[in-house]
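Z., the sequence and structure:
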Amino acid sequence: MESSNTDKEVAYRVRKLEISDNNKGFVELLQQLTVCHPVSEQEFQKRFQDISLYGDDHVICVIEDGNSGKIIATGSVFIEKKFLRNCGKVGHIEDVVVDSKARGMQLGKKIIGFLTDHAHSMGCYKVILDCSLENKAFYEKCGYKQKEVQMVKYFI
């Protein structure tokens, strides 16, 4: 039996992170992005509750593979409230990663679209993100453009 495009869209629907996603490989997926040590169930629940207090000002979204039940893509957006631009808001997109086995399926584009739409719906006048040079072309395909330079100072 052939699967339709509708079946695939349901199988790869973007949704907000749920507390049960810890058991679906969420932290392991983040380990494909950067240094991310294992997180205990208690630590995950505490951080989930902390982030939940921000409501729609801090959203983590995921895509769960409908067949395996694993989280295969994620990203987050944080809404910064400013005094500039008539007390405007800026969306900051962070921690975008697609499982290495699921790349090339347009899942990253779905994640970026969801996060961008969320920032826009929250009244942000812009949304920004940092990326590596290797990922620049991907973000340009998502409608982003290079602006200025990123700087960082790590404490650990």
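The longest strand covers residues 71-81. The beta strands are 14-16, 58-64, 71-81, 89-98, 126-129.

Let me know what you think.
H.
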